[in-house]
Amino acid sequence: MRKLTYFIACSIDGFIGGPDGDATAMVSFVDEEFMEFLKTEYPETMPTHGRRALGFDDLANRRFDTIIQGRASYDLALKEGVTSPYAHMRQYVASRSLTESPDPQVEIVAGDLVAKVRELKAEEGEFGIYLCGGAQVAGELLDEVDELVIKTYPIVYGTGMPMFGSGFDVTEFTLGEVRTFGNGAVVRTYSRKR
Ligand SMILES: NC(=O)c1ccc[n+]([C@@H]2O[C@H](COP(=O)([O-])OP(=O)(O)OC[C@H]3O[C@@H](n4cnc5c(N)ncnc54)[C@H](OP(=O)(O)O)[C@@H]3O)[C@@H](O)[C@H]2O)c1
């Protein structure tokens, strides 16, 4: 059974972006120390074009070989002319409006998203599945999330896009590793209590 991990950046008050999802205020916290952490522990979570620009697109995946994201999150890459933003993984984009995939490396999931995730989780393999977001897709997949890796940056938004765009429900997680960084960022790993 492979794990579904929601690996996400958020503000202290739990928002993954501004009201429209804009997360650019978080980018400045990816400094030298934090980038080294990402390169060492989660290199596959950085987009292929970013890795190439930084000169480390040859780093092997450490934890994930599959990524799932919502169409609105995928749109951010499309707007930059990038059709295959995570070419180093199998890519799935949830969408009912994209009738044709913009790239042969990207599979569109228009049907039952939860069923598709369960099918992927049931595969054999040492690597897990990276749930990239955004809020809508994460909210729909909350029941399938086995692990959370939350990168909290030392900023407060006041309001914004929540981590999960779902209704109220109490789901318990167990705290695992906690990493702190010189710039005030904290990365916490949680596993779902089953
Ligand atoms: N802080 C972070 O680390 C982080 C990470 C990722 C994203 N984000 C932010 O999140 C924002 C986007 O989040 P969002 O909640 O607006 O959107 P999203 O979850 O990325 O995408 C929503 C879209 O996914 C499709 N979708 C959702 N459920 C589906 C289902 N069951 N079956 C098929 N398609 C489905 C629909 O696409 P169609 O309309 O095409 O049908 C829907 O409009 C971005 O602005 C980004 O900046 C932040």
Give a structural overview.
By secondary structure, the chain is of the alpha/beta class. The protein has a single domain (4-192), classed as Dihydrofolate Reductase, subunit A (3-Layer(aba) Sandwich), CATH 3.40.430.10. It contains 5 helices and 10 strands; from the N terminus they run ββααβαββαβαββββ. The longest helix is centred in the first third of the chain and has 10 residues, at 32-41. The radius of gyration is 16 Å and the shape is globular. The two termini are 14 Å apart. The mean pLDDT is 97. It binds NADP nicotinamide-adenine-dinucleotide phosphate. NADP nicotinamide-adenine-dinucleotide phosphate is lined by residues 8-9, 16-17, 21, 23, 69-73, 76, 94-98, 109-110, 113, 132-137, 140, 161, 165. This is Dihydrofolate reductase family protein. InterPro entries: DHFR-like_dom_sf, RibDG_C, Riboflavin_Biosynth_HTPR. Residues 2-186 form the Bacterial bifunctional deaminase-reductase C-terminal domain.
List keywords for this structure.
two-stranded antiparallel ribbon; globular; Dihydrofolate reductase family protein; eight-stranded mixed beta sheet; Dihydrofolate Reductase, subunit A; alpha/beta; binds NADP nicotinamide-adenine-dinucleotide phosphate; DHFR-like_dom_sf; Riboflavin_Biosynth_HTPR; 5 helices; 194 residues
Brief summary of the model shown:
This protein has 194 residues and is of the alpha/beta class.
